[in-house]
Write a structure and sequence with these properties.
320 residues, alpha/beta, Rossmann fold, GMP Synthetase, Chain A, domain 3, 4-stranded mixed beta sheet, binds xanthosine-5'-monophosphate
Length: 320
């Protein structure tokens, strides 16, 4: 018999008892889990919480501004932005293999986070994370078979030990729907609480192959249009994920009577329950038409839009 109000009350007390007078640091990604964790911990200890948002240059259009305006301006949370686009792009330069990119992004993230922690808080004792119950289960390695480790991306790997920080994970006993209820009760807007998942490596795994600022910008503009149309139709809330993928191939198009030799954007929209399997969404043709028209007309550098009609398995949701 689970009640949101009771949970919040109990956790606030628990967080206060655990933390005492020390400071807590939290890596805020803007996703559902870290957002709810931030709101809950802030409700418990206010200014003792410091959040760090890493701008890795692989974010969607307007994401950083949105996160800053919501948490810093509205919620009055102590939020620092680590401006590290240049560093990430430098490290990623010329790298095209997906797992190599993920590794670089993960390591650089830890480094940036560590640096910003050093510069802001001498007395920090706790590192907060929005770990949920399913993450706890999935992060358990079965026997000594590393392949059984499904994912560990919620942990800022190795950081707590290196920084001598204790972990604070107030959402550890919750499932996603319960986290959403907690977020709503704490006053987070629907746009945050019901947000689609977004991978940690961000647009870094949606620009196929090697990453450049130009490709990222093209992808950002195209993806912004897709999300805009998904929102307008209301379908954004009904699908599991909707996003664009930048394909590093050029195709011939025509603008007026000029040849337009430019990149291809793939539209990926899927339905899923838990991301383990997924089916491509049967979007209305008229909506697909609008999305395609807008992307080819409004985004310079794109001559063609294609639709991904692959299910998982055998495909995966992301292209990399
Ligand atoms: P795939 O592509 O494996 O994705 O079908 C399943 C779900 O996981 C997300 N995803 C990631 N999330 N780091 C993350 O935090 C990653 O490296 C990563 N790769 C995929 C993906 O968006 C989908 O929701």
């Amino acid at each position: 018999d689970w009640s949101t109000a009771d949970f919040i009350k109990r956790k606030i007390q628990e967080i206060r008892d655990t933390v005492g007078k020390s400071r807590v640091l939290l890596g805020l990604s803007g996703g559902v889990d870290s957002s709810v964790a931030a709101a809950l911990i802030h409700a418990a200890i206010g200014k003792q919480l410091t959040c760090v948002f890493v701008d890795n240059g692989l974010l969607r259009k307007g994401e950083r501004e949105y996160v800053v305006s919501l948490y810093k301006r509205n919620f009055k949370i102590d939020l620092r932005v680590a401006d590290s686009e240049a560093l990430f792009l430098k490290k990623l330069k010329g790298v095209s293999e997906p797992e190599a990119k993920r590794k670089i992004i993960g390591n650089t993230f830890v480094k940036v986070f560590e640096d910003s922690l050093k510069s802001i808080a001498g007395r920090a004792e706790f590192l907060a994370q929005g770990t949920l119950y399913p993450d706890v289960i999935e992060s358990v390695q079965i026997g000594n078979n590393p392949a059984s480790l499904i994912k560990s991306h919620h942990n800022v790997g190795g950081l707590p030990e290196r920084m001598k920080l204790k972990l604070l994970e107030p959402l550890r006993e919750l499932f996603k729907d319960e986290v959403r209820a907690v977020g709503t009760a704490l006053g987070l807007p629907k746009e945050v609480v019901w947000r689609q998942p977004f991978p940690g490596p961000g647009l870094g795994v949606r620009v196929l192959g090697d990453i450049t600022a130009e490709k990222l910008n093209i992808l950002r503009e195209a993806d912004f249009i897709l999300q805009d149309e998904m929102m307008k139709s209301g379908l954004y809330w009904k699908v599991w994920q909707s996003f664009c993928v930048f394909l590093p191939v050029k195709s011939v198009g025509v603008i007026g009577d000029e040849r337009n030799y430019a990149y291809v954007i793939a539209v990926r929209v899927v339905e899923s329950i838990d991301a383990m399997t997924a089916d491509w969404s049967r979007l209305p043709y008229d909506l697909l038409q609008t999305i395609s028209n807008r992307i080819t007309n409004e985004v310079r550098g794109v001559s063609r839009v294609v639709l991904d009609i692959s299910s998982k398995p055998p495909a995966t949701i992301e292209w990399e």
